[in-house]
Design goal:
The protein has 426 residues and is mainly β. The protein has helices at residues 2-15, 393-425; strands at 25-37, 43-56, 69-73, 92-99, 116-126, 132-141, 162-173, 177-180, 186-188, 191-194, 202-209, 212-220, 225-228, 243-245, 254-262, 265-275, 280-283, 288-292, 296-306, 311-318, 329-330, 335-336, 340-341, 347-356, 365-372, 379-388. It has a 7-stranded mixed β-barrel. A 6-stranded mixed beta sheet has the order 8-16-15-11-12-13, with no helix packed on it. Strands 17, 19, 22, 23 and 24 form a 5-stranded antiparallel beta sheet that branches. The termini are far apart.
Length: 426
């Protein structure tokens, strides 16, 4: 790969940032196969990774790397570069494979096509998982190869061979991995094209989950027969075979397979759908909690209706801001409940602790933090504790008694003095 990488870097530096319309080749890994019978007479396949170049041009073009196998793609009705429009070359991962028609020969119905073909698949993936493309490369021959070639006996390909091919069929998905919320409409993208009109195409959708495979939809252009729903037939003329889920549920999770077949070719793209529903977080107290010193209260943080099950609840306490920013501390006495499964197959969990009110804790801020894979940042809910001193009723009673006694004495004294004054006047 050293020389190929050097050429790639040189071209990149010369052309600056390549756009899809500027680059004319891609480094690829040609995953060749050697099939043999082992000592137990069982068929085994050994994969051999070989250096290859996917080059776009015309028949007779010189290879950009003479030390690698060159798959030269010449012009046809299908332009593979259009399917990666706007993508930089270094964002593409390229794989090449042989494709077996299991020994059968079918003349490919395009103008000027020869009777026999060798087939290869080219898989282009975006480095960040934004799409996946599988194309079929056709290498024509006038005469059949000797014997009955299939995956048991591939014709050898020398290291510096130039294989002149055309693109015969393409299938693409822009949603190889999907994360969806509950009760939302979700479109699973599948696009295809064939290099000739009137191709007898069969399109099918299957769902696979926990080892079970279910057919969702099928359409046969030759017979016009349709089974299932979820795919708009009007879009077929433009090669759009996307499948739409009307409303996602937990049971919608799984691998969705869009397959397109035109004899003798069969292609598929896999789409992994994962449900992620964020939790709804609440506390059983308001933003401010007032307690008398010595009182105890159960404080509950509830995370409801989330999926999948894994969730983390952490409680922190933080002293009042006096100077600087006080650091929050994790509470150690937090108890977590069991995960509770709801009717819609989502989950709920609570994390709680018992708070003993003390005057020294007045003004503290308590925060519940909930983390879940559906969240970019944790959800937090907080409250501030206000602790009040208890009322000393005995002291108030004693003071009140003294006041009443003083009033009584004062009244008796005034009454006695008034009687004496009245006697003197008489």
């Amino acid at each position: 790969m050293g020389l190929m990488l050097t050429i790639f870097i040189y071209w990149t530096l010369s052309a600056g940032v390549w756009s899809v319309h500027q680059f004319q080749w891609l480094p690829c890994s040609f995953i060749d196969e050697r099939v043999f019978l082992n000592k137990d007479n069982h068929t085994e396949t050994r994969l051999i990774h070989r250096e290859a170049i996917l080059q776009f041009g015309q028949k007779g073009d010189a290879p950009v790397n003479r030390n690698a196998i060159t798959f030269l793609i010449t012009r046809s009705k299908l332009d593979l570069l259009q399917y990666v429009e706007g993508v930089e070359a270094e964002q593409l991962k390229c794989e090449l494979h042989r494709y077996s028609t299991e020994g059968g020969y079918v003349r490919w119905p395009v103008l000027g096509a020869r009777e026999y073909n060798h087939w290869f698949t080219c898989i282009l993936r975006h480095s960040r998982g934004l799409f996946s493309i599988t194309s079929f490369l056709r290498r024509p021959f006038d005469q059949p190869p000797p014997g009955r070639p299939d995956y048991h006996k591939w014709p050898p390909i020398p290291n510096r061979e130039v294989l002149t091919t055309t693109v015969a069929m393409v299938i693409k998905t822009q949603t190889p991995s999907v994360k969806a919320r509950l009760k939302f409409q979700q479109k699973l993208h599948c696009q295809f094209d064939v290099d000739h009109k009137g191709a007898k195409v069969t399109v099918e959708w299957h769902k696979q989950h926990h080892g079970e495979r279910t057919k969702l939809f099928s359409y046969n252009r030759r017979t016009g027969q349709t089974q299932g729903s979820g795919v708009g037939l009007r879009a077929f003329a433009a090669g759009d075979a996307s499948y739409t889920l009307a409303s996602t549920m937990i049971s919608s999770e799984g691998t969705y397979i869009c397959s397109v077949s035109v004899n003798p070719l069969f292609a598929r793209v896999d789409i992994n759908l994962q449900i992620e529903e964020p939790p709804h977080v609440s506390l059983n107290v308001g933003p401010s909690l007032s307690l008398m010193e010595g009182n105890k209260r159960k404080i509950v943080c509830e995370a409801n209706s989330y999926y999948p099950r894994d969730v983390e609840i952490i409680w922190h306490e933080q002293d009042p801001v006096v100077l600087g920013a006080p650091h929050p501390r994790s509470l150690e006495n937090v108890i977590l409940s069991y995960h509770r499964e709801n009717r819609d197959m989502t989950f709920s969990l609570s994390g709680f602790f018992y708070l003993q009110a003390a005057l020294r804790d007045s003004g503290k801020k308590f925060t519940c933090s909930v983390s879940h894979q559906s969240l970019k940042v944790s959800i937090t809910k907080s409250f501030t504790l206000i602790v009040e001193e208890p009322t000393n009723w005995m002291l108030y009673l004693a003071v009140g008694s003294v006041m009443i006694l003083l009033l009584y004495v004062k009244r008796s004294y005034l009454h006695s003095a008034w009687r004496k004054l009245a006697g003197k006047v008489i």
